[in-house]
Please model this.
Amino acid sequence: MATSLLSVDRINAFYGDSHVLHDVSLEVSSGRLLALLGRNGAGKSTCMHAVVGFLPPRSGHIRIGERELQGAAPEAICRHGVGFVPQGRRIFPTLTVYENLEVAARRSAPAAGAKRWSRQDVQAIFPRLKEREKQVAGSLSGGEQQMLAVGRALMTNPRVLLLDEPSEGLAPMIVRELGNVLAELKKEISILLVEQNLGLAMKLADDVVLLNTGRVVFAGTREEFEQRQPELQRHLGVH
Ligand SMILES: Nc1ncnc2c1ncn2[C@@H]1O[C@H](COP(=O)(O)OP(=O)(O)OP(=O)(O)O)[C@@H](O)[C@H]1O
Model:
């Protein structure tokens, strides 16, 4: 049986008085990719923001391995091995690809169980980033910028990688290319993926959690999800 790496256990999160996540639980197992699905506004990004410490939940637990993350600051959560690629790819547009990767590098020892990533390791997964090494990041295509954003997160030596809608705004051909490199990447690291593109999510997912208005309406393997897809379709956006 796969061992749990990132565990989100019955969290409740609020924006002011607005209760957005209701007893949400999920487990990212070691070596697996979990796709977190749901319509616009279902609470997927909020769930990621809860994990990385931007919106600490009011109740529940978040653990990586044995370590409790609930209540920890975002820097500490990152140091304990949670890498985050937010929606909209935060890269430094005026720095080169090389510089973007190097400034993200963590010099301290990786968290227990994490790999130390070098720029060369990242470029082996994303050969485009080798070809474009000297180019300023702002001049890259959308797909390349997304790869760079993922590469920057890898340079922090995460144990688990959180990707928030990596395909957003990319042309279908580029999404296919991104899907191929993410398929390679998932051999190296456990991933929590938020994705509106169901085709991409199904190509990559081992496990699926489906949210509707901040509540889990399905949790299981991709195969179980696909079997129940006709009845679950109403909880998905039209993509
Ligand atoms: N900063 C905020 N302040 C108040 N409410 C917010 C804030 N951010 C999100 N919400 C609300 O929280 C709920 C969940 O939003 P969230 O962004 O997590 O959904 P999502 O599933 O990621 O959707 P999307 O695909 O549109 O990003 C929505 O009702 C949204 O309007």
User: Anything to note?
Assistant: The longest strand covers residues 4-15. The two ends are 33 Å apart (CA to CA). The CA atoms of residues 42 and 102 lie 35 Å apart.
